[in-house]
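pinned: reference chain
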Amino acid sequence: MEKKFKRILIVLVIIVGIVTLPNLINSSDGEKMQLSISTPQEDLVREVFSYPTGNYEGKVERITLRANGDIMFHGPQIDGAYKNGKYDFNPSFRHVKKYIESADLALGNFESTTAGGTPSGYPVFNAPDESVETLSRIGYDVLATANNHALDKGKNGVIRTIDKIAENNMVSVGTYKEPGENIYIAEVENIKIAVLSYTYGLNGMESMLSSQDREYMVNLIDKEKIEGDIKQSKENGADFTIVFIHWGNEYQLKPSSYQKELANSMFQWGADIILGSHPHVIQESDIIYIDGEAKYVIYSMGNFISNQRRETLGSIANSTHTEDGVIVDLVLEKDFVSGDKRIVGVNYIPTWVNRTESNGSFHYEVLPVRDALKGDYNDYTKAKLQASYENTMGKMQLYGEIGANK
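pinned: its structure tokens
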């Protein structure tokens, strides 16, 4: 009898709890009470649920950002891609497509224009529209367009390049059609990432723009402007600010003192990641701590694809290194409960441009070096791949989980 009474009492307690739970959760002014529940899931600190709806409100999120350097289309590349009355650049990127499309946010430096008319390579770059279509197809989200060739086809070239990138569901940064467009913030898994882009110059073509257009159409390196843009990006809600910057000296394997000084200034202003281009060779990367926070810089990501190579540059110093590139693989994290955000880790996918000849034309393909070394290439090509790998990774001394190197 006593046991039966206890069972009845337990049932009554449960019923009372069910009846009164909504009143416990909802306060007198209608606000919802929040409960924190710890979970053992990987990369998850805690989940916060709002009752009675059960809406998911907070967690730790990690995303992968991948970026690479100069994407260039020289004359021989354009000629080699022409088949059956149209251009096909897909074969050039088929080996790296899986790395680009699998990133949560993929960025590249588009060092050309798509101005329409007759395509051309160096010294006046004007790539076929199919080049941008291919970059979209393999998974790019953002293309930096502030570089020394941005004005190769004048103001109309700048505008049409922006339009063609947008038509292919990508965003261009660094060149603009209207004033006030220079702060772009991508949102990935609710993490907000500002992407800015600047160039050291425009090959003396600045006069192709009016003084008014020069104020906004192409971002030139100006310390006051960069500092203002970085701070504005934070005010606009950016969790991370990336600066794509076209700087340094061509074919130099080490960054200049100017690059290092400017990088340090940008970090002090609030930049989190600096991605360098223009030297056409790999330069070192580094992780710098500002007030205990890890900041990442790679001074030059090298050429992702181009016709710059040992066969074409002749006696130019370090010409063999112009075939080398790297996809920088960054992992970013934000805790949506505490608001903390950080760069969790960085790794690298070294690349090398292979050129072959058939039927009187050259064909180009970007090879992920680690994959290609396991592939069916001859010993001569594998020797070049191995040398490329050693050159690139010899400069990428910090990789893996960030924190241990502090």
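why pinned: The two ends are 68 Å apart (CA to CA). The chain has twelve helices and 20 strands.
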